[in-house]
Fold these 2 entries.
Entry 1:
Amino acid sequence: MPKGLYKDIECGTYSGYQRHYRLEEPACDACKAGAVEYTIKYYHKNKNKIKKNPAYKARKHRQKVRRRAKLRGNRAETYTLKQVLEKYGTICYLCNADIFMDAPRNCTGKDWQWGLHIDHVIDIQYGGSDSLDNVRPTHALCNLRKSKMKPPSPCG
């Protein structure tokens, strides 16, 4: 049992799971189960609030991207969509055409392929950072086509 701040936290709860995380140790099975149970209860209790909040999905996606970057040992910093657009504008950096800001950002609806996606210039999986310096605005279709290309060769 850890000393100090975490001494009163029991295993098998969400707090126990957080304690393991903060102490940078693997979580026990009881704490994993407690965290899953807590998450499911929270979701069902707040389902309407979560689904109606348009920023919820974007926030969860950003958390996932930052986590992936950190797991690979890459730099991850916080930035907003507003900062990206202020710095780089609304021109697709891959094809140099205007991005339709009214088009849907997901792959549904009319003209989705000309909608805004934020692309990592050097993908996280190839060692790129999740930072404002490594992201650019693109069309959805340009971004999806780029992801199908082979990674750049280290030899040039």
Entry 2:
Amino acid sequence: MLRVNDLHVYYGAIHALKGLSFSVEQGELVAVLGANGAGKTTMLKTLSGLLRPASGSIELHGRPLQKIEAHEIVRRGVAHVPEGRKVFPRFTVSENLKIGAYARTDAIEADLDFVFAMFPRLKERQRQYAGTLSGGEQQMLAIGRALMAKPSLLLLDEPSMGLAPKIVEQILENIRAINQAGVTVLLVEQNAAMALAISHRGYVLETGAVILEGTASELAGNDLVRQAYLGG
């Protein structure tokens, strides 16, 4: 479904992605692990068109993405939930969700129902301003807003950041359910144990390149991964 080959991305003089290559098959939930500064957020921003690669290729269903504008990438089926949620605080929950469907011309009611079924708390608070929600509720809203674009590929950047452990567990279970409903997911997540518990496969990034890949169980049993990300 997604093929990334020899991707190089710079922030000015900083070489952030150094020949990054990986793939995601349709229907998979793939985790990406790595320390701060490994290039995980840069990778997602490049996939969604917010950053331009200096070289390399990105293909979705065999069609190139690396020179496509971000709004067109959304229309092609890629939705990005950024780190820090980035909800619109002065808009209601309902308005935030409808903004997620801005690129669509078809009816959105069935997708609203899907989001409310996945996150009942959002239905209860649909007339509430997003800025008044708890951190966990804002994360649910950010994911729900992305789902309103009706993506075939969902990019998630650190969805557990700053949330209480119980809420983290709930959010990750929601992500698993979204994947089981047919949405392919690329998950960047600091909680490596939980990310690997819900994923099919994973990659480990270091200084802008993949240093390890394998099934979730293979990575969970790898000594390097256990020492660096799973507390030994």
